[in-house]
Amino acid sequence: MIESPPPMPAGAAKVSLFRRLLTHPTGVVSMVLLVLVALASVLAPLLATHDPNTASVQQVLAKAGSEHILGADSAGRDVFSRLLFAGQFSLAGALVALAVALILGVTAGLAAGYYGGWFDSVSSWLTGLMMALPGMVVLLAARAVVGPSMWLSMMIFGVLLSPAFFRLVYASVTAVRNELYVDAARVSGLSDVRIIGRHILTVVRAPVIIQSAMVLGIAIAIQAGLEFLGLGDRNIPTWGSMLNDGFINIFKSPTLVLWPALIIGLVCIALTLLANAMRDELERSRGPVKKSHKAAAAEAAADAEGAAEKRGAAAVVHADEPNEDAGEILLEVTDLGVGYDQPDGSTTHVVNHVNLTVRRGEVHGLVGESGSGKTQTAFSILRLLPQGGRITGGSIFFEGQDLAQLSEKEMTKVRGKRIAYIPQEPMSNLDSAFTIGSQLMEPMRVCLGISKAEARKRALSLLAKVGIPNPERTFDAYPHQISGGMAQRVLIAGAVSCEPDLLIADEPTTALDVTVQAEVLNLLRELQDELNMGVILVTHNFGVVADLCDRVTVMQTGRVVETGPVRSIFNHAQHPYTRQLLGAILEDTAPRGQYTLKELKGVAS
Amino acid sequence: MYQFVLRRLLSGVLLLFVITTVAYLLLYAGGGDIARRIVGPTASDAQVALKASQLGLDRPLVVQYWDWLTGALTGDLGRSWFNGQLVSAGVSSRLSVTLSLVLGATIIAAVVSVVVAVWAAVRRGWVDRVVQFVGVLGFAIPGFLIALGLVSLFALNLKWFKATGYVPITTSFGGWAATVTLPIVALSIGCIAAVVQQIRGSLIDALRQDYVRTLRARGLSFNRVVYKHVLRNAGGPALAVLAVQFIGLLGGAVIVEQIFALPGLGQITVAATGQGDIPVVMGVVVATAAIVVIVNLVIDLAQGWLNPKVRLS
Amino acid sequence: MTETLLDIKDVVVEYPSKGFRKEPFKALKGVSLDIRQGETVGLVGESGSGKTTLGRAVLGLAPVTGGGIKYRGREISKATRAQRRDLSHEIQVVFQDPYTSLNPSMTIEQILTEPLTVRKVGRQAANKRVAELLDQVRLPPGAAHRLPREFSGGQRQRVAIARALALDPKLIVCDEPVSALDLSTQARVMELFIEIQERTGVAYLFVSHDLAVVRHLSHRVAVMYHGEIVEWGDGEQVTGAPEHPYTQRLFMAAPIPDPDRQAQHRADRLRLLELQREQDVQAGVA
After folding, report:
1. E strands of A241-346, at which residues?
2. Residue A520: which region, alpha, beta or left (left: phi > 0; alpha: psi -120 to 50)?
3. Whose CA is closest to C93, among A427, A208, A338, A184?
4. For residues B16 and B293, is the Cβ–Cβ distance under 8 A?
5. Which of A275, A403, A404, C67 matches a 20 to 30 Å C-alpha distance to C243?
6. Residue A139 burial class via C-beta count within 10 angstroms: exposed 0-12, middle 13-18, buried 19 and up
7. Can you list the pairs that C71-77 forms with residues at least 24 positions away whose Cβ atoms lie under 8 Å?
8. Is 0.90 surpassed by the pTM of this model?
9. Which residues of A fall within a CB distance of 8 Å from C61?
10. Each residue of A112-160: pLDDT tens digit?
11. d(CA B140, CA A265)
12. Is-contact A75 A153, C-beta < 8 A?
């Protein structure tokens, strides 16, 4: 079968970070402010009304007026002109620090991250050493030796700032180095230089620009701080030295301190806001991965909705097998809808009009491909939908009460005790900070109100029951000390610890090796038999369905398309989607066969 | 566990040794230039040489260092070149002022940050946006500008606090509190902004972890999961950023002490730096490095307690 | 007469362990295998069996510390970067995860021309080649200027296949290329693999944990366990009547998608485990 060309998503194409920043309100304001400050500093000789260093005894602490727009300082120098010229030195000093930090940090980060080895160890150690002392103290100590040169101080500060870039680049590079697309580039024969240029620099570029804005702000602040302490070069005007002068004369002329403080504050805020705006935009541009995924699911759901309405919206329902010994109805989901609220106020529906009935003692398979809504349906029964998700309609009746209407507090009493859950990924579902034992006992003590000693006894017997060879040792172990298969057994033990009536298992064997899967399936069967639970088994694997399930419900794009006893579904599927799924099963297809048999024999003889 | 503590302790001592050695070599490498700076540019070469030999600067650097190190190990950090005071006495008498500022600011920052971050991460929505925006501002404005603002508002205009001076806590707690409140607030604002961002981020990450759903599915309430499991898992990165902030505060304290005229480490550092009083500068470096090493050790142990993987591997 | 394309002989791969003077970790403990022109060799095993490592060793991405890998008689396990560059039009790769194997910031066209630029193909020729490749993997020509994130998992895997085909290789190492895909997508991508092989005569080293996938695609199958090949031979033979106890256990563990046959299969599996346990006991006694 040849697939028809897939539908192409519209829009996209890359837009530069700068152009996107222009649409970001705080981004634009910050950029305009920074450009103005930079321009004013560069054009200081044209804009200044006075020479910044000409002192005048008559003008000492002169008030603002026609002669001095912003007044004069303690030496009678014009504040406005000094502010402009100080901008040149303050900004240039900060840029020197930034340049040194960039050159050192980025190159060392690239080399250490990409090549690793001894260079990695040495530079990581040096970085730790540099970050061990406060920058201010190091600068002061350096000042004691090298004297009051601002340029030298800023170069030293640049060295001290380089770890900020080193760590960032190093982290990005080590993350990217192991990406499969870098491996693919290596297999294609690309040289290291080319790989770094093409795949790694592009990843590092944006974060480095963001970090640069932050670092520039820090450099301006620290430089002002140093000058403020009176340790700077007295021959050049800087914002910090003006601040110093203003602070000394704060009682005589309070506004003197205001102007440099204002400009330092504004520049630092603008740089930080700009960095944040860039980060926002960058995240937004990466965002569509999820969004388009969801949107695609939504579109598909909407399509399905339309199609279903045309067909009369009916799912195929197979009759029960006549001699089936049906238990009482445990769970009845009717007309369930699940939606996610979008930032624009609309709601994306991922589950629509789903009906589902589970009886006591029945294993009910919920089958479908990704985006079919099977996991969303399971989570909504537990009332544990991910952030932003909510039940938009329908009812979930469980032993006489509608779970969809319960308060969070009432629902907490149902979870764990009456309805339990087994997740897909065993490792990430255990809290790595607590021992297996404490994680088993805590909910038991809450749900059953038993003592610690009793909980411990029960936990140990549960661990033995789920086939863990040395329960005592596992009880005291942390999650990272046991294997995935063992972790899944622990999670199963936890799920059945309060003898629930309904068990929701979300792809419980998907993350496991096939031999472990067989064991876990056996365990689930035994436990289900013993406790006579109803089970909802969410899976995409028809082998697992055949092994465990009594009934099957097939879902596609948020809807139920077919439901019935397991044999009817396997043998008499009616809905085209179910048939397509069953048709994609490989188990029964013929093996590929031998490769050019004759030639093989020719080789052998 | 003992092994873990021992290993951290050893690496801390090693770090202290390396920092002080590097600092000593860099500070004293100047040799003759140092003496020249003290006696002034107009002095004759003979005067410079005399000063150098008075201060022991004419000996080989390694010999000077060995002398200093053996002294330092017994608590003797030498004497100031200018007032002849014992460096160890000068530093330790001022340490308590700086430490009370920095520790005060750190504790306030830790408590406030956890509360605000949990609030923002759990509630999200507008609360989160406001916290984020205020956080950015708090982070962006240099601490000494905040200090200047506080001085002019609360001390000079409203006259709620004294602008300058220090009362030891042993003399009067009220007096002490009145003199350190503004400096601590000034120091802690930037710190809070940074720590809130970090905790908020790691809380949001931790809340998305699969085990949160699984624990809730087992009947634990959302609040219990947040306070017992999520906070603990978010604690590691939070402690790390707190350690970095603490080091930053030690630097920030220098300027803030100057603004509020507090007799802390910052004051002697600035004075010594201006004069080129290298034994005192060296003493401050040793004290700072020791504090940093101790704080890092404490944070490391706390990390080990929070995260069994750190402790057991 | 078919030519042996790749000859893997007693390959050992060791990764240095963390920690002082610790034994290095042996991911492969002497593995031998050969692949002929136009043939698919399936490599099955569970996690940690070393199957992915073997694929990476062939690609020069894993440190081969013993044995050798010959491509058309040329030793390649110690190839330099320059020699690898020459090999890039012979051996290519398709990885498992279609989300991380394509650089998210490059367009499909940039991704597909990357291998071509190494071979200094002109711009016009490269563009023509991209169009051909997209057609080969049944993607519309308009896909060239889009970013990977705009495609579904199956479509991305088609892009990855197109990249592998760009230099007309003779051998493609496929590392679990359909494992992350949905059932029906998986079936279509597998048909694409077969179709390409029949048309171009490329050989595959097909690594997978899924027995059914390997059985469907492979002429010959090797089963790996703890860094060794425990069974190796004709696909029908290995997947139909396995001889090694581990292979037997592995094949009995996979559930059959039919309730009645699976019930039987399950019972057979328990009997097999019982039998093997008895044999182990006897062997232990003897």
Report:
1. 316-317, 329-341
2. alpha
3. A184
4. yes
5. C67
6. buried
7. C71/C5, C71/C6, C71/C7, C71/C171, C72/C3, C72/C5, C73/C7, C77/C11
8. no
9. 183, 186-187
10. 888 877 888 888 888 888 888 888 888 888 888 877 888 888 999 999 9
11. 8
12. no
Q: CB of C165 within 8 A of CB of C111?
A: no
Residue A445: how many CA atoms within 13 Å on its side-chain side?
A: 13
* Encoded amino acid at A538, one letter: V
pLDDT digits (tens), chain B, 313 positions: 678 788 888 888 888 898 888 888 888 876 557 777 777 777 777 877 887 787 777 778 888 888 888 888 888 888 888 887 888 888 888 888 899 899 999 999 999 999 999 999 988 888 888 888 888 888 888 888 888 888 888 777 777 776 677 777 777 777 777 788 888 999 999 899 989 988 998 898 889 899 999 999 999 999 999 989 998 888 888 888 888 889 889 888 888 888 888 888 888 888 888 888 888 888 898 899 999 889 988 888 888 888 887 776 5
Residue with tokens 């402010």: A33
Using only the alpha carbons of chain A, give its radius of gyration: 34
Of B160, B116, B156, residue with least CA distance to B138: B116
Q: Which chains touch B (3 or more CB pairs under 8 A)?
A: A
**Residue A379: its chain B contacts at CB < 8 A?**
213
Q: Which residues in chain A touch residue C83, judged by CB atoms under 8 angstroms apart? A: none
Query: In this structure, what token pair is assigned to residue C78?
Result: 């110690």
Rounded-to-integer distance, Cα C10 and Cα A521, Å: 37
Tell me the C-alpha distance between A598 and A52, whole Å. 96
Q: Binning pLDDT at 50, 70 and 90, where does residue A561 land?
A: very high
Six token digits for residue B260: 């509020």
**Residue B210, burial from CB neighbour count under 10 angstroms (0-12, 13-18, 19+):** middle
| Nearest-by-CA chain C residue for A578 | C184
Give the three-state DSSP class for C2: coil
DSSP state of B264: S
A193 Cα to chain C: minimum distance (Å): 12
Stretch (H or E) spanning A478: none
The helix (run of H) or strand (run of E) holding residue C48 is none
Alpha-carbon distance B202 to B208, whole Å? 10
Residues near A477 by beta carbon (within 8 Å), at least 6 away in sequence:
A435, A436
Nearest to B253 by CA among B242, B268, B238: B268
**Collapsed DSSP state (helix, strand, coil) of residue B223:** helix
Contact C262, A525 (CB under 8 A): no
Pseudo-torsion of CA A354, A355, A360, A365, nearest 10°? -50
Helix (H, G, I), strand (E, B) or coil at A365: strand
**Inter-chain CB proximity A584 and C101 less than 8 Å:** no
Task: Say how far apart CA A216 and CA B37 lie, in whole Å.
Answer: 32
Instruction: Classify residue A22 as exposed, middle or buried by CB count within 10 Å of its CB (0-12, 13-18, 19+).
Output: exposed
Q: Residues of A with CB below 8 A from C2's CB? A: 596, 599-600, 603
In 3D space, the residue among A296, A569, A553, A6 whose CA is nearest the CA of residue C184 turns out to be: A6
Q: Describe the strand order of the beta sheet including C25-36 as a list of residue ranges.
A: C25-36, C4-15, C64-71, C74-75
A337 strand-pairing partners:
A393
DSSP A143-182: HHHH-S-HHHHHHHHHHHHHHHHHHHHHHHHHHHHTSHHH
Strand partners, C232: C222
Query: How many Å apart are CA A461 and CA A471, to the nearest integer?
Result: 8
Strand partners, C141: none
Q: Dump pLDDT digits (tens) for C51-62.
A: 999 999 999 889
- The DSSP string of C195-208 is HHHHHH--EEEEEE
